Amino acid sequence: MNWSLTFAPLIPLPWLVAVAVLGLIAVAPLLLRRLRGGWLRLLALVALIAALAGPVLLAEDRQPLPTVVALVVDKSASQDLDGRAEVTEAARAALEKRFGELRSIDLRVIEAGGKTGAAPVDGTELFTAVSTALADVAPERLGAVVMLTDGEVHDVPMPPNSPFAGAPLHALVSGRDDERDRQMVIRSPPRFAIVGEDQTIEYSVLDQGAPSNEPVRVTISLDGEPLATETVTPGALNRFPIKIGHAGQNIYEFEAAALDGELTTVNNRAAAVIDGIRENLRVLLVSGEPHAGERIWRNLLKSDASVDLVHFTILRPPEKQDGTPINELSLIAFPTRELFSVKIDQFDLIIFDRYAQRGVLPTIYFDNIARYVREGGALLVASGPDYASDDSLWSTPLADVLPAAPTGRVLEKPFSPRVTDLGQRHPVTRGLAGADAEPPRWSRWFRQIEVENPGGETIMKGADDDPLLVLDREGKGRVALMLSDQVWLWARGYEGGGPHVDLLRRLAHWLMKEPDLEEEALRATARGATLVIDRQTMQEKTGPVTVIAPSGARRTLTLSPEAPGRFHAEMLADEIGLWRVEDGEHRAFAHVGPANPREFTNVLSTFDRLAPVVEASGGHIARMTANGALDTPRIVPMRPGRAMTGRDWMGVRMTEASVLRGVDRWPLFSGFLGLAALLGVMAATWYREGR
């Protein structure tokens, strides 16, 4: 029970002061002259003023509030090293028991630095977690903050001060004094580069806790395949030249050999993820003769910003004799030697559009084209009746790389092009608009070249279910054979037209090895903390994949069918770093979070980060273990203003905060008691002066 005196004046305070002043003026001469009854008159004035002031005695019923203590447990990834997590849990249990034995302590356990939900967090932010968890606690109620951590905290306030309104910060640090670790650091790698362009990646190997000049073996991999091995000196800056090999992500991984007795090998690896960007693709289009669909290919390729097109149309073959003088021809000569001998390897794709062998190109150039395909080039033959004639390209050395031989027949009948079962799964024809109906929702064609013994993959069929579009691989290169010249009907909108843009663009980019159009591919991408896995295949089914976390932990994931030839899965990536996905034949990589996460920049346990703040708050910092055994300090409740730490103890600033439950009021000059006191004094004054 708390007692206090307050006032409830019956008249405004200025009037009360005026009455008191006037009364003193009237009484003062009596006191100065020491007349009879002067002191009684003063007492009567005091009683009158007290009655007007309304003194009230208050009796407050208050309930003391408990002192809040925050026990912060570091759950970051570095705490999983070298048995730190087990020691931390043992210290947590011991402290919870000791705080539980103290009265008026509200212990709040805060787990921080690990995951938000199930998503990984880059860095250990314990102070932010404390501020969030104690948002409902008044500063004067906070008795202490105790952190169980390895000391690698990334949100320490700077400059060091007492961050908890005068409450002490105590830190118990896991780990050992003799720790050592090796770290791979990649310095500012390029994010983008042109395919085929030379770049340089700078990297260093850092030894912490055990400086050494002994050479270190570094293995360098590209997309999971070993690329090179180097021997470097710890601490030195090294440069590794690279050449971007393909479009899309190029993941260069640098891994240093393990250091004896080091804490972890997770940070021995670092990855540089470089997006390969292809320069404009070079396409050579040769039209054998003018025809209705000639401009379809030209317009399509010219509209593609990623394509540089060189187009020739043979208007006047050598056998044509029309008497026109050479000096009156307005078109340039066909530079056959330059295109098909000197610069042929500079093209990403060669297209023959309704081309017949009429002596324009010597046989040796067709040998060059066949060699160009086998060494990685791409060839597309968009044929018409020319392919069934005696002058067909099949009669040239290109027959060795073309996937189907003509029978010599041209099928002249209406038909609806259809995507084959294989084509439903092929990225060139999968999901073409209108292909999901029977008949397909696109216009008919009226001419097709008959072939026999087709090789490769037939992804579209036409009249009499004969092959219409055939794809094949030859050596390192690719070949496509389109057995009709009437795709222009789709472009002209005949009977509603058809998806000619999607079909021809995909076809051209598949030939030029666009990564997104590979038939067999395994891809992994990171969307925030979600790992997305896509499998593209020509098979009807696919097996599970193995997902390997940065720490080396493995798990098996089953993919669900998403579309014909496409399978998909998603999972929450609970670690920061480079994830690897394998299915036995293919590999894919995805990097979750920053390339060099703060959590593994330095994994040695340390006092250095927290010690200045602990000292500024008057707290205690020590190792959790001493001589290999758990060593937990004593907990001592202390009054504010006293020292909060000692050699083997930690202090808790006990709060004086309380909650008001009720108030009893006792007016001192009200009712009969006040009236009697006032009348008694006045009567005494009258009596004294009347004598």
TrEMBL record:
Keywords: Membrane, Transmembrane, Transmembrane helix. The keyword Cell membrane does not apply. The keyword Membrane applies. The chain crosses the membrane at residues 12-32, 39-58, 666-687. InterPro entries: Class_I_gatase-like. Signal peptide: none annotated. This is Glutamine amidotransferase domain-containing protein.
